[in-house]
# Entry
Amino acid sequence: MIFDLKTTLPAGIPTRFIARQHRFTTDTHWKLGAVLADGAERKHIALVRALPQERQVRLTMRGPNPHNFFTLLRDGVEVTLQRFPGLDVRRWLPCPGHDGNPCDYLFEYDRILRAIEHGTEVTAVQCQETFEDVSVGELLYGLHWITNDRVITRIDELADQIRAEFASAQKP
Ligand SMILES: [Zn+2]
# Structure
């Protein structure tokens, strides 16, 4: 997620955020960013960066099931930004790509939320780079309650996979 501040980044971004998230430290941090990881296994890796020239904060997540860690860190970014009253923050989500090809298009998060809360069934939005439809579920995966069914399905799939791996490990 890209947080577009449209103004000079206040001093303390992202250092305040990084200090708040100390429990996730990987001891890899610098003046304008940090690499964070969750839990002992560190399956999920997050990169938070402040980009003063672009007037942006970027939060990037990698891992098999990243939405919980993402939500946690995103809340941390939001709380940090709220400490600076008057910021007009716009949030952007990168296009997930098309048929395995990456895409540079950015969707405005609030606009997607407005679309799905509009009342009519909006299940896809058009990428303005390729004019292909992108599933709202894929775009907001784990970020909004409408994707809960998808998240639960994914958790069930993972649970099945773990059970299968466990069962095959038990075989003599
Ligand atoms: Zn696209």
Remarks:
- Residues 7 and 33 are 18 Å apart (CA to CA).
- The first strand starts at residue 2 and ends at 4.
